[in-house]
Amino acid sequence: MTPEYRIDAEQRIASYLANNDVDDIKNMQVEQTFDDLGHEVHVWNIRTSGGNWWVVEGESAPMNLYTQNEFYFSADEAYSFHMGITQRLQARHHQTFKHVIDEVPLDIDGIKSISRRLNSAALELNDVSGPEDIQSIGLTCRESLIELAGVLAKGNPELLKDHGLKSADFKGIAKAVINIYAVGKRNSNLRKRCRDLIESAWDQSSEVVHSPNKNIPDAKICLLFTCSAVSVIQNLFLKYLGFDDEPKCPECKSMDYDIVGGENSGEFVLSCNSCGQESAISEEI
Ligand SMILES: [Zn+2]
Q1: Of 149, 167, 234, 245, which residue has the fewest beta carbons closer than 10 angstroms?
Q2: Which H helix or E strand runs over 173?
Q3: Strand segments (E) across the chain
Q4: Ligand 1 center to residue 43 CA distance, Å?
Q5: Per-chain residues with Cβ under 5 A from ion ligand 1
Q6: CA 170/CA 148 separation, integer angstroms
Q7: pLDDT digits (tens, 9 = 90+) for 235-278
């Protein structure tokens, strides 16, 4: 420790103690210096009229104060305790933030601005300091759903007129679209589940927007419902486009196959990579 460092440290410690209502310093001296973590950390022994304290400070260590009266008997214990807390805080600070919407398979390529909104709402979750921040996340979710309704209405021009719907009626539009994208008796359970999810997303976001008593988990659930609703509508659309009509191996139902040319032109053979079965495909590919 250089003399300059000592003078500077003594001043910082005196002002730190004053901020913590510890006055009337009788004596301060370095009790012990540790460098086992690659940088110097000093434990100061401070005697005041009101009691004795350890102050831990040093390179890349935040300053902190520990009483000698009760729990911290030695400089060594004060140091260990301090570094444990410091490392935990630093570890938490450096932890890579797990994006809430990484938890749902969200694939909304065609709807870039909804994706952007939901991403920024997920980041806001990390920075909540009051009820208005929670409400703002709810609002972002609701606006995203309304934007999705707009995209759906635009993709199905007759929809609003045919069903007498308003352009901001997310629930009405989404339910009408579910009926278009998942038709037939075989999809009736799926339609019901999708409608329930649409309801959940909309109602949760309305609740979060209007209530000042919601917490971070409520906002997170709101975001998850919203992302799920968007993703589900998109996957229904893929289904509608025929992505669930992919050929399968007639023998083992595997979808891992190659399609190769047959003996005659215009003939194709599905060659299964799982069971080796080769079967002619009659339809055009
Ligand atoms: Zn097969």
Answers
A1: 245
A2: helix 170-181
A3: 25-34, 41-48, 51-58, 61-67, 257-261, 268-272, 278-281
A4: 71
A5: 249, 251-252, 254, 272, 274-275, 277
A6: 8
A7: 887 777 666 666 788 888 888 888 777 777 667 788 888 999 88
